[in-house]
Specification:
Elements: H1 2-11, H2 16-27, H3 32-43, H4 54-66, H5 70-81, H6 86-98, H7 106-119, H8 121-127
Helix pairs in contact: 1-2, 2-3, 2-7, 3-7, 5-6, 6-7, 7-8
């Protein structure tokens, strides 16, 4: 919602990639998936899959990496205890960027961090779990 976006903009005011992400989120009325897809297509302009959005594909990849990463889990838990800490929130973004094999752009990592911190890591891991067929 607009208040959460404003709070995040204030918390991350000194982190330019976050401002890019938050501006797109605001322009898309809080719709993370639409804002993220806009960022992804504007940055690389190459992704096109009518069956899965780039947001959904990114969440799938993040799930494989983050749901078993105890360091990331610890950072998210600490941040949820102190959600006004810009240092902790930026630390989560930096952790995602630092996972070298994912090669995430800091703006992309900001989207993921905001989404996960909003809904919680356990819910994220369960919600993005592949369906059993």
């Amino acid at each position: 919602n607009p208040a959460e976006i404003a709070t995040a903009k204030q918390l991350l005011q000194d982190y330019a990639p976050a401002q890019t992400a938050l501006t797109l989120i605001a322009e898309n009325n809080g719709d993370l998936a639409a804002a993220f897809d806009r960022l992804a297509t504007s940055e690389r302009n190459t992704y096109s899959d009518p069956t899965q959005s780039i947001w959904e594909a990114t969440l799938t990849v993040l799930r494989r990496e983050l749901c078993r990463d105890e360091g990331f889990r610890g950072k998210v838990k600490e941040y949820t205890k102190n959600p006004t800490s810009a240092v902790m929130l930026t630390g989560i973004v930096h952790h995602l960027v630092a996972i070298s094999h994912l090669q995430l752009d800091p703006s992309v990592a900001t989207f993921a961090t905001l989404y996960i911190s909003r809904i919680g890591l356990d819910i994220f891991c369960e919600h993005t779990k592949p369906s059993e067929k």
